[in-house]
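To the structural biology subgroup,

Please find below the input and predicted structure for Putative nucleotidyltransferase with HDIG domain, which we are adding to the shared reference set this quarter. The sequence is reproduced verbatim from the submission form. If anyone notices a discrepancy with their own records, reply to this email rather than editing the shared folder directly, so we keep one authoritative version.
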Amino acid sequence: MLNASTPNGQVMLLDGITALAGSVRVEGSDQLHQFAESLGNAVDARDPTTYNHSWEVAEVARMLARALGLSPEQAETVHVAGHLHDIGKIGMPDEILKKPGRLTDEEWRLMRHHPEVGTDIVRPIEAFCSRGGVADMILCHHERFDGKGYPLGLMGEDIPLGARIIAVADTLSALLQDRPYRSGTCFEAAMAEIRRCAGTQFDPVVVIALESISKEAVEFFTDKLDRWVFGRKPAVAVCLKT
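Predicted structure (tokenized):
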């Protein structure tokens, strides 16, 4: 049996996922979404505290894309990229993914490579490789609006819009979830942190879009009570409802 917690297991898992991606011939939107969701679930399954994180990012990112006036097709592309944004973590050692404290410089260096690893995984899929498409969104979802992000140090509108959207959705979901190094926060506190980072970490236009869908986002998270069993505390539900 493949053990993803060992170095050999991580390499085998990563190679297997890359080979699977290379064999995919997507014939329609439904199949593409199913493939993306399955890979996103595979990443989230590595750590119970990130249960459904990729799914949450995908759903919120699609809400944001629609709020920003993207076409249905563009919104669906962002949705797919949301499922796959962290696929590069699939081969990351457990001691890094689940570490309760601060990462060492070397561990952080390895972690910062996950956007590039994820991009390499999906590049064999032709449908993902258009300019500003899924592969570019995966590559750039940790870029910052002020140019201080990674891996390319892109700034402002040089960052693909889909990546700017996913960055906000990713942070919202992460702040609401418990992580090994901190407890999850409530929706209003998460929103306050995202507002604080508008113009530095995040595109201010995307943050405004999040404000415009905040009621829809609250309903989305509070409707998922069953998912808290796997990583989100019931206390967050109370906070979200206030």
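Summary notes: The CA atoms of residues 11 and 91 lie 6 Å apart. The longest helix spans residues 7-23.

Regards,
Lab coordination
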